[in-house]
TrEMBL record:
CDD domains: MPP_CapA. This is Lipoprotein. Residues 1-20 form the signal peptide. The lineage of its organism: Bacteria, Bacillati, Actinomycetota, Actinomycetes, Kitasatosporales. SUPFAM superfamilies: Metallo-dependent phosphatases. Residues 46-295 form the Capsule synthesis protein CapA domain. Belongs to the CapA family. Keywords: Lipoprotein, Signal. SMART domains: PGA_cap. PROSITE patterns: PROKAR_LIPOPROTEIN. Transmembrane segments: none annotated. Residues 23-43 are annotated as: Disordered.
Length: 384
């Protein structure tokens, strides 16, 4: 009998070996070809990750304005962080909503975002998006299909939701310099929406055993680094909740042959920045915050200025010191950012300090939250 772990490993092995042919059958762009070895040995790589991109009504209107009233253009919105994102070897985003049919897009509570978001993410330099979220099932299986189709057309890979069972069992593997990075993604909930009865694999649910099983299968099939994106946590809460802390501890404690099964955890969903923490020797970002936010309000309708605050996580991985060893994070950084609702732009706060004391206070507030669980002692620094 073939276990689910062996099934995933088998599928991933085929993807790594066959490349374009297999990926075409799974509706995914082909894997990059092998890189020539360096005369000085393997080099490291840099990974950048950002938070939620929820297209609320205000964001949709801004994108329409930036397109001159003809369609939607999300590229100007993200231009302020393009240099950080595009300079990384691999950049990961979180597409927390599904794309609509081409009619009038809608925002909260059931999203139907313009598919042009995908082109904006690609133009900014993102390589892959996690697509498992509480809104993955806002339009059922058709919403998932439209979203993944649009990301494919834009050249952005994806993890966390699927159009076929085979796709659900196929790990997303990205080339990052000399390394192969497996991007896995899951959500803690689907906002009460049921999985399609005939497609229980359509969205990855954050079951601990499944995550470990998938991570081990990806490693067994050749992934050098395993990154897990998790849509989890309590909305509007800066401190990680008990579920986040418990799951982070158990996932980072899981090892195979003395090597951790998960190398990095990236959290989304809280809509506000949360702490970074090194847990069992592995970096965990509990919450990156919303990279794009259209004036976040609480459940009573009171505007929450933290909704426009977020971070980019930047992790520089060094190659193993011995064959079969772990790719270690040699440098961990966070870049504080803010979505200026009035201007409709993402702002790198460290580069915008000339704007005045208000910008500095927002930057410092984000820093305090990010470092609130002792990450500075483990080497986390603020970048730009």
């Amino acid at each position: 009998m073939i276990t689910r772990s062996r099934q995933v490993a088998l599928v991933l092995t085929v993807v790594l070996a066959a490349g374009a042919a297999c990926q075409a059958r799974d509706h995914r762009p082909p894997e990059p070809g092998p890189l020539a070895p360096s005369a000085t040995g393997p080099r490291g790589f840099t990974l950048v990750a950002s938070g939620d991109v929820p297209a609320h009504e205000a964001i949709i209107e801004r994108a329409r304005y930036d397109a001159g009233g003809a369609g939607y253009d999300f590229r100007p919105m993200l231009s302020g962080v393009r240099s950080v994102v595009d300079s990384a070897d691999v950049a990961l985003c979180h597409m927390g909503t599904v794309y609509g049919t081409g009619g009038d897009p809608t925002g909260h509570p059931l999203f139907a975002s313009p598919s042009e978001v995908a082109r904006g993410l690609a133009a900014t330099g993102y390589d892959s998006c996690s697509t498992a979220s509480g809104h993955s099932l806002d339009d059922g299986a058709e919403g998932i299909r439209r979203t993944l189709d649009a990301l494919d057309r834009a050249g952005v890979r994806h993890a966390g939701s699927a159009r076929t069972e085979r796709e659900a069992r196929t790990a997303t593997v990205l080339r990052a310099g000399p390394a192969r990075v497996a991007h896995l993604a899951y959500t803690d909930a689907a906002d009460g929406l049921p999985l399609p009865p005939d497609e229980p694999w359509a969205v990855g649910l954050a079951d601990e055993a499944r995550i470990v099983d998938d991570a081990r299968a990806a490693r067994e099939a050749g992934a050098d680094v395993v990154v897990v994106s998790l849509h989890w946590g309590t909305e509007g809460q800066e401190a990680p909740d008990e579920r986040q802390i418990a799951l982070a501890r158990s996932l980072t404690a899981s090892t195979t042959g003395g090597r951790p099964d998960v190398d990095l955890i990236l959290g989304t969903h809280a809509h506000v920045p949360q702490a970074y923490e090194k847990v069992n020797g592995t970096w965990v970002v509990y919450g990156l915050g919303d990279q794009i936010a259209g004036g976040t309000a609480d459940h009573e309708g009171v505007r929450d200025p933290r909704g426009g605050q977020s971070t980019l996580g930047r992790f520089t991985f060094a190659p193993p010191k011995r064959p079969g060893g772990r790719w270690e994070v040699a440098r961990a950084e966070f870049v504080p950012q803010f979505f200026d609702v009035d201007a409709g732009r993402v702002v790198d706060l460290n580069r915008a300090l000339a704007r005045g004391a208000e910008v500095r206070s927002v930057r410092d507030r984000i820093r305090n939250v990010v470092l609130s669980r002792g990450a500075a002692q483990d080497g986390l620094v603020m970048g730009e």
